[in-house]
Amino acid sequence: MKRIIGIFISLSILAIIFLKIDINQFVHNFRNINLVYFAISLLFFLPQTYVSARRWQLILNTQCAISLWKSASLVLASSTLNVILPSKVGDFAKALFLKRSDGLELSKGFSLTFIEKILDVAGLCVVLLVGALFIPNSNSIVRLSIAFSFFVIGVAIFMFSYDMRNLKLNWLASKVGVEKRLTAFLDEWQESVSTQKRDKQRFIIILSLTIFLWFLHIGQIYLFFLSLNSSVSPIVVFAYAPLSIFVGLIPISFGGIGTRDAALIYLFSPYESSSVMAGIGILCSFRYFVPALFGLPFIDRLGFKPQEIKREG
Fold this sequence. Notes:
mainly alpha; 0% strand; 80% helix; globular; single chain
């Protein structure tokens, strides 16, 4: 039911957008797309997949050593499942598969996946800061972005440097009946974090790959601007595109479609027309469906069953 509501919200927002923009200009932009820049943007999927797979392989290294090919298979398959399952449940599938194939405890796999997601959010904020701190014309949105980024990065640093068990959250968890689950999760989280930080060189490489991965993602979005013959500067793209990604993560639409598009049109309104930004929104959604398409062959091969993943989750 939630999925149907999400699809309805996405279609409703898209309908409003396309009623407001100049459709003829929108079509003209795609007819005159720069195929060279678009081809280069498509090539970015290769290093993105490699860096994601290599990072996941390194995160797993202390608990469950797997090959780079297997890691890439898991990353692509989870991308597919993220499209058809709600709230990024597909990422959890990596932990479920490793439990079945390599005997990795599900709780450990989940905590490692959670580490990956925390690093992703913090890494995106680092890239956001690069754009927000260097954009020529600051405004309230840019200042809010800077404050938000520092806050998120600070929370991530806190989670990786402080023993979360000392927060004494059991009294709060007991009120909602999840005390045992929270205690078990915090124990597993602390063990996983300590293990990750034990090899400082490897952990620095993981952090570097995370930031580099987001530079690849935002760089690909900038190539979408060039593909549609836009003159928006890369600094502006780095300042505002991450915000649209965060908006797309709000779990009210289908895969962020609609909400992300509306955010792009609003944020870039001083720099580019709505018809161009609507096209950028389409291409940004394209970023999520291409890896999902390439992940389809790995669903059956790795034994993923969506209903089982939802149940385990």
